[in-house]
Design a protein that fits this description.
By secondary structure, this protein is of the alpha/beta class. The strands form six sheets. Strands 3, 4, 5, 14 and 15 form a five-stranded mixed beta sheet that branches. Strands 23-24-1-25 form a four-stranded mixed beta sheet. 54% of the residues are buried.
Length: 438
């Protein structure tokens, strides 16, 4: 297994375009597979999770070719899944959940499996509403994979009220709704990322939005199109936090997607006192992008309100590092969803912060961090177990900027699921990182 070896200190300076957006690339591939004709995806992310998506779609008869930073996806609008086929989703929860909605319209018996981590993640919340639509979807009694889908008698539109904001479940239901009779409506308790809704417009389908409700009409075909993928704001979050908490840093992140449903990390570090400028705002395909300049500044602890959680759900490993480097107490609540990611991210962050000498307290739905930002060295140094979670691994790598001694982050193989080349890119802007095989 790979481990990150971090020498303490340093600053983050210069200009950087982080890897392309994982969520948008997933959706571009899956929607292109449902569209008739050839779609072109510019600047896709090609990390391990996306390789799982490409392999799954090829298994279902979709032609996908890669040429000079682009993917060309050719489909007749139907997934030709081999009867009783097994689709391996690797480590990707996004693929497993959304694929249920994409493929249920194919009305073929098949199973969805994944790696050890993915097979421990909850899937009942996507299976049950699809069953309500008329599909036959089964999971284990624990609610975990494998997901087994059987042939059904047709899908009907429903109105489903999500108990927890989930862009993945919402996307699965909307895409299943395109092959259902009548209208399918999803109600959200809080706004979740809306990449699917924006992208559907590019493919010729215009979802109806009414406050917390979003609807699609069944029987609406998708037409092939071109999709441009911006840089991933969740990947940029590690560098935003690193620069914000480190005196002397001055880092500009370019062409970052700033979709309002993903902007929570910027709002949170600004409230903590970070010096953040969002400049050169422009349209890139169907998404807003900007350049984000972050300079080192004094951070202070805050209470993070529950209404900010969905728009920063993937960014809390990085944000909790910022909390440790702030002056005073930061409280995160309403974030139970963090326990259902690639790892239990609340437990993993508490474990890692304590290992590095940070005072913190685990709560059922969040964490309290008592920051030591008034000290030069916030973290003591030591070993951290990432639990095989890419975002935990990258978060504790950034912590070395304010550490007294070397930090070793173990089990970092899965960093490539979302951020291939992370270590090399981080070195370019000043992080003292080496990667070794354990």
């Amino acid at each position: 297994m790979k481990k990150h070896i971090l020498s303490p200190g340093g600053e983050l300076n210069g200009e950087l375009r982080v890897v392309s957006d994982k969520s948008i690339t997933h959706r571009a591939l899956l929607l292109a597979a449902l569209a008739q004709g050839e779609s072109e995806i510019t600047h896709p992310l090609l990390g391990d999770d996306l390789q799982s998506t490409i392999a799954a779609l090829r298994f279902c008869g979709v032609l996908i070719n890669e040429e000079e930073g682009r993917l060309y996806v050719h489909s007749d609008g139907v997934l030709h899944i081999p009867d009783n086929g097994v689709v391996n989703c690797g480590n990707s929860g996004t693929l497993m959940r959304i694929f249920c909605g994409v493929a249920v319209g194919a009305n073929i018996a098949y199973r969805l499996i994944g790696d050890d981590s993915l097979m421990q993640r909850p899937m009942r919340r996507v299976a049950w509403p699809l069953c309500e639509m008329g599909a036959k979807v089964e999971v284990e009694s624990s609610g975990k994979p494998p997901i087994v889908l059987e042939k059904h008698q047709g899908l009907r539109g429903i109105r489903h009220n999500l108990k927890t904001a989930s862009a993945q479940v919402k996307s699965a239901l909307l895409l299943a709704g395109l092959r259902a009779e009548g209208e399918t409506t999803v109600e959200e308790p809080l706004p979740s990322r809306d990449h699917t809704e924006l992208m559907l417009k590019s493919f010729g389908v215009v979802p109806k939005r009414d406050g917390a409700l979003v609807s699609v009409q069944g029987g609406t075909p998708l037409n092939a199109t071109g999709i441009k993928v911006p840089a991933d704001i969740s990947s940029a979050a590690f560098f935003m936090v690193g620069a914000a908490m480190t005196p002397g840093s001055d880092l500009t992140l370019t062409n970052v997607g700033i979709n309002p449903t993903r902007f929570g990390a910027v709002e949170i570090i600004r409230r903590m006192g970070a010096d953040v400028d969002v400049i050169n705002v422009r349209e890139y395909g169907n998404e807003l992008v900007a350049d984000i300049r972050v300079c080192g500044s004094e951070l202070h602890g805050i209470d993070i309100e529950a209404d900010l959680v969905p728009s920063a759900i993937d960014d809390f490993p990085a944000l909790l590092i910022a909390a440790a480097a702030a002056i005073g107490k930061t409280t995160l609540s309403g974030a139970t969803e963090l326990r259902n990611k690639e790892s239990d991210r609340i437990g993993a962050m508490v474990e890692g912060l304590l290992a590095l000498g940070v005072e913190c307290e685990e709560r059922k739905d969040g964490i309290v961090v008592r920051g030591a930002g008034d000290k030069k060295n916030v973290f003591s140094g030591g070993k951290v177990q990432s639990r095989g979670d890419h975002r935990i691994a990258m978060a504790f790598s950034i912590a070395a900027l304010r550490a007294a001694d070397e930090i070793v982050v173990e089990n970092c193989d899965n960093v490539s699921t979302s951020f291939p080349g992370f270590a090399a890119m981080a070195r370019e802007v000043g992080l003292r990182i080496a990667v070794e095989e354990d």
